[in-house]
């Protein structure tokens, strides 16, 4: 064993001094506690390097500080304490600190009709920033839903009308039983509208005084506004109810963005948001996309 001290390269000065906006680590494996459950998260942690002469920051200090989140429930207070400790460990070097934490939020969802339930995961992210006394937290969530094209539905209805006219218009008296049985065939309902799995990507900024991270409430509000969230456990009765829900919930991407905008405006704990919806069209190979924002 040698008694030589370890070289500390980070403490050196640099010949071409430049302050840096952000320096840190990305993709750190981190177990966190959210809503009484331990979840496997990935974190990015960093600070500004405002001392233009300093060679580097002390990455190990940020890494070790993240340990705080292994046991403390994940909320705004815990994030604030973490960022305070990032800056406290970089006095004289850094004035700003940030952390990003990403994980899958699991929620149990009931079937539409049958007494079944299953799990859905929602990719979520938390971004917290501290600059002087300015602390803010942003949340991101990704929500899958089903959308049926209103234009395609109208065109399909027109084809069904034409098919009906061809089959029954020459008859002097239309027999309801014949119509009923004809409606149950693919000659009757001759066309179906296209629908697609769609995604809503919500970014929100929490207002001052917020402590809890309201992922569940926001996801519930968004799914309620969209009306046709993707399902978990599905029996035929559930699938039929889903077909009815979609038929009564026709929407362009613009409709989805507007509904979400209205829903998020009701959320008093938010100070701003950005919405992006993507309808992964089955009509063509590109997506239909709409975005909206408030105080973003
Ligand atoms: N600043 C910086 N450190 C890096 C980088 N890549 C790897 N590291 C390593 O991160 C390790 C931890 O750095 P420090 O936190 O300064 O470690 P330390 O000097 O033992 O810890 P302190 O005594 O608390 O300063 C060092 O071994 C660095 O070489 C990089 O790009 N920048």
TrEMBL record:
<dbReference type="InterPro" id="IPR003801">
    <property type="entry name" value="GTP_cyclohydrolase_FolE2/MptA"/>
</dbReference>
<dbReference type="GO" id="GO:0046654">
    <property type="term" value="P:tetrahydrofolate biosynthetic process"/>
</dbReference>
<feature type="site" description="May be catalytically important">
    <location>
        <position position="149"/>
    </location>
</feature>
<comment type="similarity">
    <text>Belongs to the GTP cyclohydrolase IV family.</text>
</comment>
<protein>
    <recommendedName>
        <fullName>GTP cyclohydrolase FolE2</fullName>
        <ecNumber>3.5.4.16</ecNumber>
    </recommendedName>
</protein>
<dbReference type="InterPro" id="IPR022838">
    <property type="entry name" value="GTP_cyclohydrolase_FolE2"/>
</dbReference>
<dbReference type="GO" id="GO:0003934">
    <property type="term" value="F:GTP cyclohydrolase I activity"/>
</dbReference>
<comment type="pathway">
    <text>Cofactor biosynthesis; 7,8-dihydroneopterin triphosphate biosynthesis; 7,8-dihydroneopterin triphosphate from GTP: step 1/1.</text>
</comment>
<comment type="function">
    <text>Converts GTP to 7,8-dihydroneopterin triphosphate.</text>
</comment>
<keyword id="KW-0378">Hydrolase</keyword>
<dbReference type="Pfam" id="PF02649">
    <property type="entry name" value="GCHY-1"/>
</dbReference>
